[in-house]
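Reading a protein record of the kind used here takes little practice once its layout is understood. Each number in the token line that follows is a code from a learned vocabulary of backbone shapes. One such record is shown here in full, so that the layout can be seen directly:
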Amino acid sequence: MNRYIYLGLFLAFGLSAQAQIGLTGSYTWFKADQWEQFVEQKIGDYQEDHFFQNGYQFGVDYWFRLKDMRIEFLPELRYAKYTAEPVSDFDEGMFHWQSMSFHWTTNVYPFDFFGDCDCPTFSKQDPIFKKGLFLQLSPGAHFLRQWYSSEKSLILFADQKSLVYSLGLGIGLDIGISDWITLSPFGRITRIFGGEWNGFEELPVFSDTVIPDQPLEQPYELWVPEAGLRLGLRWKH
């Protein structure tokens, strides 16, 4: 494990003479169709249009790039949490899904792949789409916590922690505000692999239902589409 950490530090500080930190925020749509269908079958309607309420994801990254090609790396830490409140006469509880994750995000600039852009310096008056449009690949690892909290019993049910992996694909545009500040709006969709929630079907909110059991398939399909904005701050030449 240590050798991978050392390799990452070498890439970060050895491949580029310039660096940048970034802060990212995005509005997300959490898609867990199998959970949503199961809840609907068991207890009918629920308060929101989707099982998990749409929410926000926040991240912080460190930017660096290859010297002769417009391939840029943004190792990133992200945090996200979603909740859902089912409508049930038996228990007014709440579902929770929380993620702390690390992503090795890579941006590729297809219209300026061999360009000499001294990015993120935007002193040159080049077409913004040529210099700024990027395609993004973002593999990641998530530490998940999933649980159900009951207001009646004050107990946490099906409280599970696990490590899963993901792959995100996105597109975005760098907009240079100055030589030191870059804004990058982006859109991205992330597929999370291997998500399971042991004990989900036995939660107390379902115990008063009369619908026959219909087991969930595992692992579940989890998708996170998002629309966001990154603020890049250049901090050394």
